[in-house]
Amino acid sequence: MGEDKEEASPLSESTRPSTQGAGSKQTVAPSAAQRLPASRRRWRIAGYTAGVIVCLLFMALGTVFGHFYWNSPLFREMWHQHGISSLVNVVRTGDPLADWRPERQFPDRTSLNVLVIGVDHDYDNRGQIVKTTPGRSDSILLARVDFVRNTISALTIPRDTAVRIPGRHGISKINAAHSHGGPDLLIETIRTVFGIPVDAWVSINFEGFQKVVDALGGVYINVEKKLDYDDNWGKLHIHLKPGYQHLTGYEAMGYVRMRHSDSDLMRSRRQHAFLEALRTKLKQPATFLRLPQVINQLNDALKRGGITNDQMFALANFARQLPRENIAIETLPSYEGPSYVTVDTEKSAEVIQRLFYPDQQVALQIEAPDPNSVRALNMRYDRRSRRAPRRGRPAPAAAPTPTATAPAPPAEPADLSVEEPSAEQQPAPEPQPEPQDGDPESGAGTAG
């Protein structure tokens, strides 16, 4: 009987009290979890861990969602429109941004030409922006977004490029097109002169530019050389030392605008460097929580045509994910002059063919003004500039000092452009340009 009870005891030999002496270790009976097979124990631990991770994930997602929802009216609007669909996309594809893929937002297109305009407004005597005119296009970038090749090909057009604006007389700088007729006239000028159709446009003024960059927390850029410039009339004061450094919104605005110490070509290169720095900033994880403020500033500052908010978001998301080698930005081939930039028609046609017509051979005819006519305008400007300092340069001691509240124009217009003279006054061999940047009619110039 005793032996039967011994065999029925739940304690094995290894778990019975030891009789080998007081110094021996005493064993403890295993718990229920320990008695489970090793494989079942591993599955139970994995289940507990997964449950904790899922709970933490939902808490994090809820926190991020609340941050975006309550801090961005535009995000709230987009959530009300796409919220349920986004949740379904997460379950189906794991991509909450599936609604903003190009194939969803541009279902019938394989590419899109988008015009990006940086607008420079005039200021009144109180230092306030003059909103009665569209302002000049200080920066012009035309981008072809290719959804099939996953590429972006962009062309920057110097603001001083000599063109003939449709419906106007004489030769003008291309930045005057926006001043005369807003984005529509600028788009028509680009189509007429360069043969490039524009599907959509977005514009931002420099005040909005500063706010967007500041909302991002600034950008880091390698400033290649010292930039030192003051322009009270144009409200531009740039003082940057060479080297890799953090730029605020105002400093970044000065960096992309300044052209006093070098050419429009160098200015375009700085703008390209800024765009790459901006893209790098947007890809950083730390930038993610700043996006509600960035979205708010963009929503306030951007004007657009031919494109919806959802489509802009889709384009931004598309560009953010592209590798650097899939983005090409070039400057319109041209010849620098003291005032006007002359288009190199042959090289420009080659660049436009490569960037905007990669799938077909197009007989492009660049409708640029005759180089001799532009040269004559530059010669006239050069003669005038010897008699009057350009804006931003130190004025003679007797000249009044402009102030922020009552800006004073220079002694003579900084630019050649003047109002169309009468037939009796107009010299026969020299074509007359449109009134524009730097004239009393069109306001102050910008950045040298």
Number of domains: 2
- Helical residues, percent: 40-55%
| Major sheet details | 6 strands, mixed
Count up the helices: 13
Report the portion of residues in β strands. Answer: 15-25%
Total DSSP E strands:
14
Itemize the secondary structure elements and their pairings.
Blueprint: H1 2-8, H2 32-35, H3 38-71, H4 73-93, H5 102-105, E1 111-120, E2 136-146, E3 151-156, E4 162-163, E5 172-173, H6 175-194, E6 200-205, H7 206-216, E7 219-223, E8 227-231, E9 236-240, E10 243-247, H8 249-257, H9 264-283, H10 291-301, E11 303-305, H11 309-321, E12 327-331, E13 334-335, E14 342-343, H12 345-356, H13 371-385
Parallel strand pairs: 1-6, 3-12
Antiparallel strand pairs: 1-2, 2-3, 4-5, 6-11, 7-10, 8-9, 13-14
In short:
With 448 residues, the chain is α+β, with helices and mostly antiparallel strands.
Question: What features would you describe in this structure?
Answer:
With 448 residues, the chain is of the alpha+beta class. The chain has two domains: 35-100; 106-375, LCP protein (Aminopeptidase), CATH 3.40.630. The protein contains 13 helices and 14 strands. It has helices at residues 2-8, 32-35, 38-71, 73-93, 102-105, 175-194, 206-216, 249-257, 264-283, 291-301, 309-321, 345-356, 371-385; strands at 111-120, 136-146, 151-156, 162-163, 172-173, 200-205, 219-223, 227-231, 236-240, 243-247, 303-305, 327-331, 334-335, 342-343. The strands form five sheets. A six-stranded mixed sheet has the order 11-6-1-2-3-12, with helices on both faces. Strand 8 (227-231) and strand 9 (236-240) form a beta hairpin. The longest helix is centred in the N-terminal third of the chain and has 34 residues, at 38-71. The termini are far apart.
